[in-house]
Amino acid sequence: MPIRQYHFISTRFAPACWVGLLTLTLSPPLPAAEPTPEQARFFEAEVRPLLAEKCYSCHSEAKNKFRGGLSVDSLAGLLRGGDTGPAIVPGEPSKSLLIEAILYSNDDLQMPPKRKLTDAEIATLTKWVKLGAPWPNAKKSVASNRRIPGNITEEDRQWWAFQPIQAVTPPSAGEGWARTPVDRFIAQKLQERSLTPAPITARAVLIRRATFDLWGLPPSPEEIEAFVSDPDPNAYEKLIDRLLASPHYGERWARHWLDLVRYADSDGYRLDSYRPDAWRYRDYVIRSFNTDKSYDRFVQEQLAGDELFPNDPDAITATGYLRHWIYEYNQRDVRTQWDLILTDVTDTTADVFLGLGLQCARCHDHKFDPLLQKDYFRLQAFLSNILPQDNV
Fold first, then answer.
1. Is the pTM of this model over 0.90?
2. pLDDT band at 157 (very low <50, low <70, confident <90, very high)
3. Which residues, listed in sequence order, are joined to residue 59 by a DSSP beta bridge?
4. What are the b/e assignments for 6-30, b being 16+ CB within 10 Å?
């Protein structure tokens, strides 16, 4: 995909980059039958008080406590389980992680962690699971759809920006004036709102719009006159080809990319020291637009050009992307400055290459977007071995 066709649709690439990082957690179905009166009395008198006393402090949805991703204050929470899988298998204590944990039979899974339950308490929970984990009114206490920290729900996976691109057949609207498939989608929405398309733009206006858009400059009077008087039915197509073939196109559109990656000729902060070779990255971006470099290669060169294409000087120059952070060479607090740099590079990489605002996930899972804190630091770990070299 050439980058001149890309421009500002970076969200399109988010699903491929992120789908491998998302963890799906689904709850098994709840039992259909209600417990018998005897089972209900056993649960309310012995099981629920035991869970509340020994487990709720760390594993309760009501208290917003999800250590290990687990809540035990609902049957749905136990069936759904946490990071290590479902906590119980009704009717089978030997296959239930909850029973394994309270027995201390696994050195890596011992609950409660500070003190083992008494033999009587272990027997109570084992009996309860063996009975099929009867839970009165279980369907009324189903765990909410609130995301447990560190997990992604099925509902999260339906977020529009994470859906794969689908082939869509253009509507039939726009007969008589639609020239492209995009026009037909516009025509359909105009019809739905009882609107009519705008009249054909005068050629003098059209060349000004196109030239400002692609070059950022106005056309000369001679260029306007030549376009207006050109009898060729493909005059507009020829105009666009001419504008795209000019170096001005790359100079104009590279500015958008350079703004996204926060390019500057100096270090920022109060010293704002000059970066004598920063312009090489600027010219690399301009050159990439003007030569129609494929977008995947454009991304690879900037994120790992030295590793993937070590013998390509253009790719080495592209890694200048990783050096655009602000910097103060005489800063005494080196550790803090490096933390700020890694945060900046991580945030910017997510913004630019994933089309996702990942910054909030540095401190917590996103509340609405399916972005996890652990994924933030997975990305940062990839970037943490950057070695800045200003003399390349």
1. no
2. confident
3. 66
4. beeebeebbbeebeeebbebebeeb
